[in-house]
Amino acid sequence: MQERQIIANALKFISEEAKVPIVLVGMPWAIEIADEPQWSSRLARRHNIDYFNLQEGKRYYLQYLKSLANQMPFDIPPKLELAHTAIALYAISNGVNRTLKHFLLESVKLALLDGSKDLDNKYFIATYNKLFTANHKNKNSINPFTQKVKDIKISTLEKGSSYNSNALNEMITSPIFSAPTPIKQI
C-alpha cells in the first residue's frame, strides 16, 4: 500500500511539474496505481489491451498484423495476414503482443541484413530457429513456419497474469495457457 502511494505521488508530481499528460502502460497490475484515489481522477481514458484471441478476435488480430506490415521498411508490405503466416505467428507468440513484435523485429532485421527487399517465410523460419531453438530452448518443438496450417498447434490464454497484494510470497502470477492444440481442432 505504501509503495503504491509513493509511486502515485511521484507520478502526480512529474505530471504537474512537466505540465504534460502521463500515460500508464504496463501489466494488468498497473491498475493498482491507476486506482489510487489521487491518481485515478487524472486518468480520463482507460483502455485494456488483452492478448490476441483467434476465436473471438480474429479480425482484430489480422488487422493488427496488416498495420504492422505497413510499417515495415519494404517497398511492398509483407502479407502477414495470410492464413499460414498469421497462424504461425500466433503459435510462436500465444497471442502475446510483446512476443509477436519482438519476433517480427528480429525477422525484419534478418531480411534487411540479407539485403532482401521483402519478408518471406525463410526469414520467419530462421528467426524461429534463432530465438526458440537456440541454446536448446524448445528443441523438441516443431517450427510452425515449416508446417502445414492444419498441423500448427496453438495455445490460448486460459488465465491472465495478476497481482495479489495480499499474498505473502508470489504477488505476481504468470499467465496460464492451454495445452498446444492443432488449429483444425479449434
Task: Describe the protein's architecture and organization.
By secondary structure, this protein is mainly α. The protein folds into two domains: 1-48, no CATH class; 58-147. It is built from seven helices and six strands. The chain has helices at 2-18, 31-34, 37-40, 58-70, 83-93, 97-113, 121-132, and strands at residues 153-154, 157-159, 162-163, 172-173, 176-177, 181-182. It has a two-stranded antiparallel sheet with strand order 1-6. The longest helix has 17 residues, at 2-18. The mean pLDDT is 85.
| Beta-strand segment tally | 6
Question: Cα distance, first to last residue?
Answer: 42 Å
Q: What Rg, in angstroms, do the CA atoms define?
A: 20 Å
Q: How many domain modules?
A: 2
Strand content: 5-15%
- Given as residue ranges, the uncertain stretches (5+ residues, pLDDT < 50) are none
Number of helices: 7
Secondary-structure-derived class:
mainly alpha
Strand order of the largest sheet: 1-6
Q: Helix and strand succession?
A: HHHHHHHEEEEEE
- Fraction of residues in H or I helices: 40-55%
Largest sheet: 2 strands, antiparallel
Shape verdict: globular
The average pLDDT value, as a whole number, equals 85
Topology:
Layout: H1 2-18, H2 31-34, H3 37-40, H4 58-70, H5 83-93, H6 97-113, H7 121-132, E1 153-154, E2 157-159, E3 162-163, E4 172-173, E5 176-177, E6 181-182
Antiparallel strand pairs: 1-6, 2-5, 3-4
Helix pairs in contact: 5-6, 6-7
